[in-house]
Amino acid sequence: MFKKSLLGLLISLLLSLIAAQCGAPATPETVTVVETVVVKEEVEKTVIETVVVKEEVEKIVTVEVQVTTEAAEAGEATEAEQEPLQVFGAYATAIEEPWDGVIHSALNKAQDEGKIVYNYTDDIGYAGDMERILREVAEDQAPAIIFGDAFGNEEAVRRVAADYPDIAFVFGSGGGPVEPNFSVFDNWIHEPAYLSGMLAGGLTKSNVVGVVGGYPVPEVNRIVNAFIAGATAVNPEVDVKTTFINSWFDPAAAKEAALAQVDAGADVLFAERFGVIEAAAENGLYAFGNMSDQTSLAPENVVSGPVWNMDPTVAYVINQVAGGTYTAQDLKDFSMVAKGGATLATINEAVTGGIPAELIEQVKAKEEEIINGLFRVDIAEAQPPASSKS
Questions:
Q1: Which residues of 116-131 are buried (b: 16+ CB within 10 A; e: fewer)?
Q2: Does residue 339 belong to any structural domain of this protein?
Q3: Of 185, 212, 230, which residue sits at a domain end?
Q4: Are 154 and 255 within one domain?
Q5: Final residue belonging to a domain, choices 130, 162, 185
Q6: Are residues 179 and 219 in the same domain?
Q7: Which residues contact 94 (CB under 8 A, 6 or more apart)?
Q8: Which of 15, 105, 166, 223 is the most buried (most CB within 10 A)?
C-alpha cells in the first residue's frame, strides 16, 4: 500500500515537472485571450464609426444639391414674377391708319402675353403736340419704352429722347439711330409688295393697274416701285398709274384718287393708303391692301397684299430692355421677310372673278426664292412716275 502511494506521488511530481517545462500557466493564457477579444471589439467599433462618417458626408452632398436646385427654382420664380415693363405708344395718326395700327397691334399682343403694360395716345398730328405729349409722359409716367412714329415729327421726337436717356425711344423714322437710347425702324415690306404686283399684273384684263400712295417719300416709294416691278415682271404690257394724296391718313381723298384711276381704265387697285379698297368694292374690282391683311374689309374683292409684322421688333426690344442690354440701333432687319417681319397676306382665292391656279403657283415659287435668299427685290426709293409707261 505504501509502495502504491509512493509511486503515485512520484508520478504526480514528474507530471508537474513536465508541465512546468512545456507550457505557460493557464491563467495568463486566459487573460491574453480576454485582452485579444477586447482589442477586436475596439477595432469593430472603429469600423462602425467610419461608416457613420461616410453617411454624414453623403448627407452633406445631398443637402448641397438640394440648395442648388432650390436656388435655380427661386431664380426661375423671380424671372416669372418680374414686373411687366411699362410701355407707351405715341402715334401721329388715328390708330385705324394701318401704319400705326400695326405697331399698336404688336404692343397689344405683348400686353396680352403679360410682358408689358401698355398705354397710348393716337391722332397727335403734326402741329407741335407730339413733343408736349412725349415730355408729359416721360415726366409723369417714366415708361421703360416709348414706341411711335416720328415721320413729320422727327426733330421733336429726337429732342425729347435726348433729354430722357434712361427711356428707350423706338420710333419709325427715315433717319438713323442715336446713342444711347433712340432706335429706329421702318416697314421694309417691298418684298411682299413685289409679289402683290405679280398677282395684280396677272389679274388685270385692261392692262391698267392703279396705285394710291400717301407721300412720295423713300419709305412709300420703295413699296410702290416694288409693286410696279412685280406687275411688269409677269405682264410687260401693264401700265401702273400712281397717285399721291400728300397725306398719311385721308380715306376720302384716297378713295377719290382711286375712283379717278378707275375712270382711267384701272381694273385692279393697290391701296397703299386707307380708303382705296372701298372704291374697288363699289366697282367690283380686284384690290390689294397694305401693312396688314385687309381681306375682311371687302372679302369679295381683296386678293392679298404686303403685310408688316411688328412682333419680331417689339419682342426684341422688350427682351433687350428687360435684360438691361438695350442700345440704340437700326431695327430694319426685323421688318423684313427673313426675320418674319414681312409677309404676303394669304391669297384670297374666293374673290369674285377667281385667280388662275398657275398665277398662284408662280407667285408662291417666287416667294420661296425670296425666303431662301435666291431672289432679291431691288430697293428703289426714287419717286415712281405717274405712269409706268411714261
A1: bebebbbebeeeebbb
A2: no
A3: 185
A4: no
A5: 185
A6: no
A7: 100, 122, 123, 249
A8: 223
Residue 329 CA: distances (Å) to CA of 1, 18, 180, 182, 338: 134, 112, 9, 7, 18
Per-residue pLDDT of the chain (390 residues; tens, 9 = 90+): 434 444 454 445 444 444 444 444 444 443 333 333 333 333 333 333 333 334 443 443 333 334 344 444 444 444 445 799 999 999 999 999 889 999 999 999 999 999 999 999 999 999 999 999 999 999 999 999 999 999 999 999 999 999 999 999 999 999 999 999 999 999 999 999 999 999 999 999 999 999 999 999 999 999 999 999 999 999 999 999 999 999 999 999 999 999 999 999 999 999 999 999 999 999 999 999 999 999 999 999 999 999 999 999 999 999 999 999 999 999 999 999 999 999 999 999 999 999 999 999 999 999 999 999 999 999 999 999 999 998
- In this prediction the pTM is 0.74
Q: Provide the domain count of the chain.
A: 2
Cis amide prior to 180 (ω within 30 degrees)? yes
Domain of residue 137 covers 85-185
